Structure formats: C-alpha cells, structure tokens
C-alpha cells in the first residue's frame, strides 16, 4: 500500500518526535535483569563472573592398583586416596561416588526405570526391563587409614558412599585412606553404560573400555557443599582435581592405553615399539606403534602371564583406560603453543581402514581448534579408543564408536560420524575436564559448550562439513514442539526430557546465535576465551558463565539467558503488514503526473467493464446540451496558480529542507509481531526493484517496550520490491512462511516409493570400491 507524507517545515520533529514512539507495553518484561535466578556474588565468586579472592577447591590424589581378569571379566583394585581439605570448613566425613552401583539389582536406576509393553517385543527389550542376571556393582572389601591403620566405618547409599573419619578434617589438612574393592565388568553392547567390554566371537577376544572403575571422591564446594546427588545414568560426573598414579595388571599380550603418560615403557613395550613411539613424537602423520599384523597375531594367543602398565597423570579430575590384545596403536606429534602433545588412537582391525585414516588426525585437529578458542591444551597426550561405546569422555582419553562394514566400505554418515564423535569427545578435554563444571547438575555446561566448539572445529575440517548441530535451522524442529515435550536448558541433568536437543543442540545453537547475530564474532570470541581462562582447572557454575560473557563483552545478555536458557518459548517473528509512503513534493507538475499515472493504472471494476458492452451510449453522449464546464475539466492539469503556490511553499523552506523534499525517498512502515514469544534480533533483508539487496540487523532491544508487536520505519532511496525476515536462517525462526512481505510460497516435497525396496548399501559398495586400499596410520603396511 502506498501513501503520501505531507511534510511540515519541521521535518525532524514530525519523524522523530515522541508522538511516534511506541509506549504500549505487553505486560511482561523480558528485558528485566536476572535477579533471583542468579546467586548473590561472594568473595568466592564475584559479580563479574571471575573467581573471587577467597575462591577455594578441594584436592584428591590417587595411587591405584587394579588387576583385569580376562577369564571372568572382572576387576579387583586397591587405592590410596589423599584428600586435602582446602575449604574453610571442618569435615567429619567424606563422600565417594560408586557409579557402578547403577548395576546393582536394587539400584535406584532400576527401580525408577519407566517402560511400556507392546504386542511384540524383543528378548533384549524384555531383558532390559527385567534387569536380571547381572550385578556389576562395587563390592567394597575394606576401607581403612593408610598402612595398618584402623578400619573406617562407611555407609553406602545407592551410588554414594559416606566414609566417617576418626576425627574431623580441619582446613588445610589432608587425610590418606585405603579402599579395596572388586566388581564384574558389564557386557556393554547388552547392558549398556559408559564403560564395559565388547566380545568378538570371530576370534573370541575381549576389548575393555574401563571407566568409573574405582570409588571416586565427590566434590565439596562453596555452592552445594557435598555434591552427592544420586547417579541415575544420565547426569554425568562431578569430580575434584588431583594427581594419579595407576598400575594396571592385564594379560601379557594385551595393549593398555590410559589417561596420562606411560611410566614403564621398557617393561611393557618391545624395543621396536619404543622406537616407533619415539618416531611418532615428531611425525606429521600417524605412525603405527602396534601394527594390524601384530594385533592379528596377538588375537590368536592367550597369554597366561601378566604385565603391569603404570601410568601417571597430573592435575586431572578422573582416569580411564582400555585393554585388549586386539589393539592397533598409532600416534603423531603436534605442538600447542610450544608444548609437545601426542595424539593417539587404539582400535581393533575391525575399525580399519576408517580409523587408521581419520581417528588420530581428528584428535590432532580438535586440539588445535579448541586451543585457539579456549586455552592451550596442556596435557601431554590425547587418545581416541574404539570399541562398542559410541562416545564417552575422560581426561586425555575417550571412547568412540563408528566402524566400517566387514568388507571395509563405509557410508558418508559413518565417515563423518567418526570424525564428529572424535572431535566431540576429545573436545571434552576442555569442557569439563579442564573447565570443570558440575555435570551432575548441569549437562549443558559441558555438552552444550563442547557441541558449539565441535561445530566450529567441523567447519574448519572441511568446507561444507555436514554438522548435525550448531546451525540455528537445525534446532527448529525441537523448538517447535509442544511445551510439555521441552524443558528449559536450566534443568537438572537427570530431569531433562530430550537430552540431545536440550543439553547439546539448543545451547550450542544459542552460542552460535550469540556469536553471529547478537554479539558479533570479535566480542563473543574474546568473552568465551575469557571464561575458559578464568575457570580453567576450577569449578564454574552457570552464573559464572553468564556473568563472564557479559563482563568481558560489555553486552547486556540477561534477556538472552532468560529466553534461551530459562524458558521454552521459540522464535517466530512475522511481518504482518508493510505500508509504503512517499514524500509529497508539493510540485504540481510532479504530483499531478503521478496521480494521473496511478488513475490510468487503476483497474476497471467488473461493472465498468460490462457497462462498456451493455451501454454503448450514455445519455450525455446522445444529448450534448447536458454537458457543462466539468465535462471538459481536467483536475490534474497544472495551472499558473498551482505553480505560484508551489514557489511560495519553497520560499519558506531552508536549503536542507528543500533537499529532503526533492530526494524522492521511500518510507516503509513495517509491522512486526513476535508470535513465538522469544525476543530476538530482527534481521531484515530488503530486495529493491532493481534486484539489489540490503540487510539490516536490528538488536533485540527493539522489543523492550512491547514484547509482542512493534512497527519499524525503513527509509530507502530505491523502491523496495519485498521484505524478508531472517534471510540467512540466523535466529532459529520456526515458521518461515510469515517472514516475507509480500508473502512467498515455500515449496515442500513428498517422495514416491515402491513397496518392495532393495537392501540398502553404501555408495562404496555400489561402486565396488575395494576395501584393500592403502591404510594410512593403522593398516597392515608396517609400523611407519
């Protein structure tokens, strides 16, 4: 619709005066500062989001000895724990985590597991419901003060264990006690879990991926006191930092990889393997330490004797390891800001050629990418292990899935799935292994931040990388769901309904939108890096993250945290209407010509069109004497009086006002509605009549006085053909059909298929690509 603006002499007052401001409030204040949602700052944690002058955290150092029984798939262990109380409080007891107790027959996990029955069910599904026949819980054999000290009383409460001290542990004091235990390792493909073994029936060998294998100290901090919320299987782990020395006794023909650095290579590796390992430290590509031929040969034996592998790790929050005679092992060196790091992978032959080509390279790429955006990686190694566990992270070591078909071919989904899971799990070294957030309470603080960094690393791997999460458009299906199917991101880990969308996808998308649309890359990157630097090797909370991002950028983001993290509303902005205005120039020659053009272009009504046929002659046509002055009058003809009046008008205007009058500007009043409820920046693309385009980014504060609907005036020199909201899919808008004006039709597709379909094959199989291609870094081509 097109209108004319009649300009007064005070042009600025007309367009910018308070009479045109929108003062109608919607009844809610989505731009209110976060108040009770955030804890009161203290000397431990400041209002800026940085650790305070009195910040403290506890320390737990471990000396662990474990033995793996490959015949019974069980582990026995002894650990000496030195717990240092750096808090200002006296502690009369300590809490330890017994995570394997979720596999106890009477576990809270089993008791609270919900399920439904169907007309047809697999034996596996029924076994999962019954949870019978396997007890993988910890069996505590003894707890006592170190050495020949007295036994310590303890109480087991499902997955938590309280150890009562003989006397309160005072501030700045330490206590060392010894725990002995044993347990049966779970069959991971059948029982599930973040740790366990996989059995290979073809060669009758086991591959062990072992974590949560020892009683672990819980966190005691200034926020929660003891974090002893039960482990039910979804909320992961909260752990203090410490130094570890772990001795792992396994069959002599096993290869053992673990968190930390190997302390006794001379006792467990051959001279050739040690030479290869030394070569790998300076290699630009993976060097094979244990070859596929060597691993295949080892699969055929069954050593009766054992070897003990000793690993040490400093300033880590946990420890994990893997053991199998099936392992191929490769490694390559890289340097992170002057510090050497070994990127390594352990995997069975069933993983080749995929793993030999991509795993270790993915490890190295992750360390480079994340180090740029957070802090430099400071541990000596980073390891990717392949087994049945799809993806799970520990300091310096992670377990990853994805393997090719038996013929060596693989789909694109498998290839990129492997690269992505390695990036993701190795990336967890930064969140939460270094920036040590509370996973038991807030999954998003490690998974969401890590998924965001994973997305950035994937895009640096390959142009057009098919990332599953990170782009705003990918979270739209989740945010379009009914409210009862969603939780706010700020929901406890064990209570989240859709963990993947809520704790991974939505926070990662939120950070991407902050970086690209709300803050800009420069401000975001600086603030995000500041957060990582402030809280490296410490225990941050959500408030510390929110406050640091604002403190380091100077951007008020309370509205964003409130909408994206504390709410479940979605983005759905709509252009409801556009009104087009032109300035009335007062020049009769211009304005009358325009009006004549508009009249000529106006469509005839249906009645007018039919009357031309039905009424060949009107009465005035038949009787000319009925005509008078007005029958020949042209209202749009320009008279001398009109011209004189125009000149008088011009004489009253200043030169600047005359310039504005004659510019021929276009004024577009755009009516916007926030249908989804989530306040967001308004990104508007104007496409002009000549085909050129302009994009205007309007901050979210446009909604501050009315969260529901606003109008915005755009002034252009060229006429606008159309307006489009969010043209580059920046804001996760859930309904694009109302983003254009005039409205645009958005095509959809449906697929036709035959009832009988051929078995699916991957493109490699379809093209008959040989699986015997050269294997990089992990094949049977030798150790170099």
UniProtKB/TrEMBL annotation:
Residues 1-21 form the signal peptide. Residues 386-564 form the Peptidase M1 membrane alanine aminopeptidase domain. InterPro entries: Peptidase_M1_aminopeptidases, Peptidase_M1_dom, Peptidase_M4/M1_CTD_sf. Residues 752-784 are annotated as: Disordered. Residues 765-775 have a biased composition (Low complexity). One of its GO terms (cellular component) is cytoplasm. Keywords: Signal. One of its GO terms (molecular function) is zinc ion binding. It comes from the Bacteria. GO terms for biological process: peptide catabolic process. This is M1 family peptidase. It comes from Hymenobacter gummosus.
